[in-house]
Amino acid sequence: MSVEKELFKLHNSLKVQVERHVFDPARESVILVNGALATTASFGQTIKYLGERYNVICFDLPYAG
Prior knowledge:
The protein is mainly beta. It is built from 1 helix and 4 strands. The longest helix has 7 residues. It is globular and about 35 Å long. The chain starts with a strand and ends in a 5-residue tail after the last strand. The mean pLDDT is about 80.
């Protein structure tokens, strides 16, 4: 599994952090969006579980959680 991390700057000065966990490029992907009091690190067990079937994309707004 490879993990790709990117930080996107939007036009209104917001920053969006994205982690893409690629288990198999041929698989479909799912997107996980964190809640107000969480970070993408809280998805650790979920990523392992979903990784058996999907590639996982985690979405986070830095400093919003």
